[in-house]
């Protein structure tokens, strides 16, 4: 199932509900990332990141919450993929010389 596609998520949740008599747990665990920096990143690649990492979470919850509310119970768990970014210079108009980011996790 492509979590970025509402129709696929909705259909999969509907099939699960019919097959199991309900849905009591959703585990949102999908994510994508790219390794190139902003200047090299294709806008379509960034759109895919947003569609999977943000809209995929929304689609999953939107599909199961009505079922869970109807049953009066349910749990939603979400895991995130963290990775350490390599050190890269940050340039801004107010800071023309490179300033290095410290390593920090990102989603």
Question: What is the radius of gyration computed over CA atoms, rounded to a whole number of angstroms?
Answer: 19 Å
**Contiguous helical run count:** 2
Please identify the structural class as seen in this structure. Answer: alpha+beta
**Assembly state (oligomeric):** single chain
Arrangement of strands in the largest sheet: 1-2
Mean pLDDT across every amino acid position = 81
Distance between the termini: 21 Å
Instruction: Name the poorly predicted regions.
Output: 95-107
Architecture overview:
With 107 residues, the protein is of the alpha+beta class. It is built from two helices and six strands, in the order H-E-H-E-E-E-E-E. The chain has helices spanning 6-20, 43-71, and strands at residues 25-28, 75-78, 83-84, 89-92, 95-100, 105-106. The strands form three sheets. The chain has a two-stranded parallel ribbon with strand order 1-2. A two-stranded antiparallel ribbon has the order 3-6. A two-stranded antiparallel ribbon has the order 4-5. Strand 1, helix 2 and strand 2 form a beta-alpha-beta unit. Helix 1 runs parallel beside helix 2 (43-71). It starts with 5 loop residues before the first helix and ends with a strand. Residues 95-107 have low confidence and may be disordered.
What are the defining features of this structure?
107 residues; alpha+beta; two-stranded parallel ribbon; two-stranded antiparallel ribbon; 2 helices; elongated
Give the secondary structure arrangement, pairings included.
Blueprint: H1 6-20, E1 25-28, H2 43-71, E2 75-78, E3 83-84, E4 89-92, E5 95-100, E6 105-106
Parallel strand pairs: 1-2
Antiparallel strand pairs: 3-6, 4-5
